[in-house]
Amino acid sequence: GQEVLVDGRVGDVILCPDEEARAAFRVREEEDSRRRLLFDACKGGAARTRDGFPVRVNINSGDQESIDAFDAASCDGIGLFRTEFLYMGQNDYPSEDFQFSSYRSMAEKNQGRELIIRTLDIGGDKQLDYMSLPREANPFLGYRAIRLCLDREEVFKTQLRAILRASAFGQVKIMFPMIVNLEELLRARELLTQAMAELDQRGEAYNRDIPVGIMIETPAAVLLSDVLAQHVDFFSIGSNDLIQYTTASDRMNEKVQHLYDSCNLSVLRAVRLVCDNARARGVDVGICGETASEPSLIPLWCAMGVNELSVAPALVGRTKYVINQTSKASMELEMQTLLAQGSIPAVRERLDQILQELGL
Ligand code: PEP
Ligand code: MG
Q1: CA 255: distance to chain centroid?
Q2: pLDDT tens digits, residue range 241-268?
Q3: How far apart are alpha carbons 112 and 327 in whole angstroms?
Q4: CA of 304 to the centre of ligand 1 (A)
Q5: What are the tens digits of pLDDT across the range 104-124?
Q6: Is 9's pLDDT higher than 90?
Q7: How far does residue 343's CA lie from ligand 2's centre (Å)?
Q8: What is the pTM of this model?
Q9: In a 10 Å sphere around its CB, with 0-12 CB exposed, 13-18 middle and 19+ buried, how is residue 21 labelled?
Q10: Please, are residues 4 and 15 in contact by the beta-carbon 8 Å criterion?
Q11: Is 218 helix (H, G, I), strand (E, B) or coil?
Q12: Beta strands in 108-200, from DSSP E residues, in sequence order
C-alpha cells in the first residue's frame, strides 16, 4: 500500500514521497512530455548536424514481435537485424525457405530502405541444444558467431542463400559478426560467392552486388580496420562487444560493470581509429551497440564522422534530435581535447555539459 515514485530514465526510486518530492516529479514528468514532443517531431525527417553532415538513424531488430510492429516510416532503415531468433525455439537448424520468408517479409516492410542482416551470432551467451556446442571455460572467447559459421559451412551457406534471395525484394546488405582477422572475412566472402553460384544453378533471383560489411567488435578488428576496409562496403561497430573485449570485462557480469564503460578512453579512441580508417577508404561506418543512442556520446559520434547509428526503436526521435542540435565542426575541436585525456569522469562531465548546452 505504499506509494512509490519511479523515474526509470535515471534509475530513481522514492518510497513514500512527501508533497515536495511529488511536486518535483510532476515537473520532471512535464519536462519529459515536452521533450518527447520535440523528439517525435524529428522521427520522420532526415537527421543532419547543424553544419550539414547527414547521419542515418536506423533501428535494431531481431524478434518476431519487433518485425510485426515495424513501421518503416519511423526510422531510416534497419541497421542490425539479429537473426538468432530464427534459430531459437526450434529443434533443428531453420531451413533456407523458412529464413528466406522472414528476411523477405522484413525487406518488403522496409520499403526500399536499407536492411542490414547479420549472419548467425550464436555461441557465447546464446546456446542451442541441437547445435551440440561444446561446454567452454570462456564462451565469449570461444566457438561462436563467424567462427562457428566458418566451421559449419552448410549451415552458413543455407543462411547466405536465404539472405541473397531476400535481396531481390529490397535494399538488403549482409554483415558478418566477430571478425578478428582478414582470413575469416575472405573465407566468408568465398562462401558467399559459392552461395551465389548455387542460386545461379537454380535460376533464383538475387542482387549480385549486395553490399557486404563486418561488425567491428574486437580490438583485433579495430587495429586491422585499415586492411579490412579494403574488402568491405561498410563497417558497423558493435560497441556492446567492443567495450567488453577492449576493457576485458564481461558484459554480463555485474561485478565488473564499473569497468565496462563506454567512456573508457581506449573505447573512444578505438571508435575514432575505425572511423578514420573507414573514411580513408570510402567505407561507410555505423554503430549498432547500445552506445549508439547514448545522448552525451552522439555529438562525439558526429565529430568522428559516423554515417549511421542503429538504435532501439523507441530512441530514434531522441537520437535524431541530438544530431540535429550538434555542430560537427565545433565538436571536432572538443574531441581533440577530450580524447587526449585519460580520465573517464572528466570526459563524462564535459560530454554532459555539452549536452546541456544543446538544451538537453
Ligand atoms: C554489439 O556487440 O554491439 C552488438 C550489437 O551485437 P550483440 O549485442 O548482438 O552482441
Ligand atoms: Mg556483438
Answers
A1: 25
A2: 999 999 999 998 999 999 999 999 999 9
A3: 30
A4: 20
A5: 999 999 999 999 999 999 986
A6: no
A7: 26
A8: 0.95
A9: middle
A10: yes
A11: coil
A12: 114-118, 171-176
For residue 310, give the ligand 1 atom closest to its CA. 5
Judge if the beta carbon of residue 246 lies within 6 A of ligand 1. Answer: no
Taking alpha carbons only, the member of 180, 267, 252, 269 closest to residue 216 is 180
List strand residue ranges (DSSP E) for the chain, in order. 4-7, 12-15, 56-61, 77-82, 114-118, 171-176, 212-216, 234-237, 284-287, 308-311
Pick the residue whose CA is nearest to atom 6 on ligand 1. 238
Which of 61, 119, 146, 240 to probe ligand 1 with, by most ligand atoms within 8 A of CB?
240
168-191 residue pLDDT tens: 999 999 999 999 999 999 999 999
End-to-end CA distance of the chain: 35
Residue 282 has pLDDT above 70, yes or no: yes
Greatest Cα-to-Cα distance within the chain, rounded to the nearest angstrom: 74
Written as nine digits, the cell of 138 is 570462456
Scored b (16 or more CB within 10 A) or e, 140-173 reads: beeebbbbbbbeeeebbbbbbbbbbbbbebbbbb
Nearest to 312 by CA among 294, 298, 299, 296: 294
- The closest-lying atom of ligand 1 relative to the alpha carbon of residue 239 is 3
